[in-house]
Amino acid sequence: xxxxxxxxxxxxxxxxxxxxxxxxxxxxxxxxxxxxxxxxxxxxxxxxxxxxxxxxxxxxxxxxxxxxxxxxxxxxxxxxxxxxxxxxxxxxxxxxxxxxxxxxxxxxxxxxxxxxxxxxxxxxxxxxxxxxxxxxxxxxxxxxxxxxxxxxxxxxxxxxxxxxxxxxxxxxxxxxxxx
Length: 179
Hints:
By secondary structure, the chain is an alpha/beta fold. It has one domain: 3-Layer(aba) Sandwich (Rossmann fold), CATH 3.40.50. It contains 9 helices and 5 strands, in the order βααβααβααβαβαα. It has a 5-stranded parallel beta sheet. Helix 7 links the parallel strand 4 (118-120) and strand 5. It is globular, with a radius of gyration of 17 Å. InterPro entries: PIN-like_dom_sf, UCP008505.
């Protein structure tokens, strides 16, 4: 089950969305979030329900994610993905047995593998042999393309000409500019 190295459709990890939210607040970057939503609608990246459910703070981000769900742009995990995620965790221990942390990571990997997609995660590799496996570690083992570089992702998605600081523009003005 290998993944094409040239595949540029990404399943995005929760940490990416949180980082984007921190660096591109909705108040100042409506055009950025509109572009990201348009790319989601075009199928350039994938938003999983497990990722949406992991966002526990950031009310603006939660509202944006809820809106994507209403638009039916959020992909739900099915039994095939659940079963493969279980297999992945059995082979490469990713889930913390006490807290349950990183369960969503196994679903991200399983979904990407089954659908021959790439992954965008800001996670680092595990530091020591006894540590839990991280997304980049497992992607390397399963030959799934995984990028960590925000600039590379934004270039591949076509963000070169997006102004992310339209402080003086209203939502309506920003939407009009993007048409």
